[in-house]
Amino acid sequence: MPRTIEGRTHDVLAASLPDTEPAKALVGPRARTANAPRAVVCFSGSRDHYQLAWALAEAGLLEKLVTDIYIDPARIPFGRVMAKRRPKMAARCSPGLSHRQVLAPLLTGLNSLLMRTPLGSRSRQIWLDRSIGRRARRESWKSDTALFSYSYYAAAAFAAGATRPRFRFLFQLHPHPATVRKILQQEMQASPRFAASLQWEHELGAPPEHFASMGQEPLMANGWVVASSFTAATLVENGVPRDEIHVVPYGVDFATYPCRDCPPASHTPFRVMWIGSMTQRKGLSYLLEAVGSLPQENLEVLICGHHAVDRSVIEQSRIKSIRVLRGLPTAELASELRKADLFVLPSLAEGFGHVILEAMSSGVPVLTTAATCAPDVLTDGEHGFIVPARDSRSLAEAIQWGMAHRAQLYGMGLSAAAQARKFTWERFRVSVVKAYKEMVGRNA
């Protein structure tokens, strides 16, 4: 088996009990709950299934969610019927939020819709992000509340000025852009044939002024929450105090990704599965090289993804049996996942890598790198394998071991499913509120 990765994170907030100690009393802010001020939250899309805003709403701490589009099917004619036909529509709301708590400016929503047309562009996306941040800042100032912003919106929300919020808390969605840029530039030097794929990434393709503003966001904040210890390490590398960063891993929907109840049939090929964008940032070439170096008999690879920037690399691989499926509905994707022997995601840099928890929940062991949530959610050799990034040989060794110990690998997947069930969304929400109160107390 691949070697054990050391340095596992021990301060994961999700492992903590709810905070029962009151934060320091605050002077000035309007209505507060449990001695903490309410907060304005901002992001676009259905980021993390609205769990951050939901957590604060549940605790009576949400002032407003400022976003681009929010559609409650129950509030529009034939909405429930349309939501069944178009699940993405139903995903643009949360059962934990009242529509009165959500602000979605019309112009912002219009530009968000235009991003899905040929009129979409990087400059429009930047405008959209900034407009959400600016509106959230105004709402926070008007209501005299805290501001809890996701990265990409915080540059506008936290900028210096007369209306700058006192409490500026950042949810760093992805690893720090400066660290990611360095990783991707190193990859370009090591694998120049993937230059197009890597330059497509936001950290390399962003205009200089916008990249600089993204890099400054963490330094504008006075409280930080991240979903993985890897992301926390990138913030530390760029000037954020480690003891002030709260690591709160995401949860997983067990109903959508139920654990399988039987192993893959012994007469079927050993299936290695990949889910995600087909790009070099996800370590695509290293998987293909690893599988291509192994005997091809009784071995197959299934890639379910999007953004096929590196599709030609797949077509040129030495893998005898490889399939690519795009645009699968979630239910079909989950069904395919339960048929896999091993899920592989050898990413170079992930803010979390939610699909890792989804695979574990499905009873499938995971082979991934430490540049993901893996050190926070699984034990190497027990629920899957953690190998170094850019290491095709270690990937091949792990796959080969799995092929030789198929029954044992299945048992490892069942252990992974039990482990995944510790990471509920309820646990995430409790931990976010605990982090929020601690950040308020530190800055009071």
Total count of domains: 2
CATH fold node name of the largest domain: Rossmann fold
List the strand order in the largest sheet. Answer: 5-4-3-6-7-8-9
Question: Total helix count?
Answer: 19
Please state the oligomeric state of the protein chains shown.
single chain
**Overall 3D form:** globular
Give the DSSP E fraction (strand runs of 2 or more residues): 5-15%
CATH architecture of the largest domain: 3-Layer(aba) Sandwich
Explained architecture:
- The protein has 444 residues and is α/β, with parallel strands linked by helices.
- The protein is built from 19 helices and 15 strands.
- Mean pLDDT is 88; it is low at 2-34.
- The longest helix has 22 residues, at 122-143.
- The protein has helices at residues 51-58, 79-85, 87-90, 106-114, 122-143, 154-158, 177-190, 195-199, 202-205, 208-220, 229-237, 284-292, 311-315, 330-338, 354-361, 374-377, 392-404, 406-420, 425-443, and strands at residues 32-33, 36-37, 39-42, 62-66, 102-103, 146-150, 168-172, 223-226, 245-247, 270-277, 299-306, 322-326, 342-345, 366-369, 384-387.
- Strands 5-4-3-6-7-8-9 form a seven-stranded parallel β-sheet, sandwiched between helices.
- The protein folds into two domains: 13-251 and 424-443, Glycogen Phosphorylase B (Rossmann fold); 270-420, Rossmann fold, CATH 3.40.50.
- It is globular, with a radius of gyration of 22 Å.
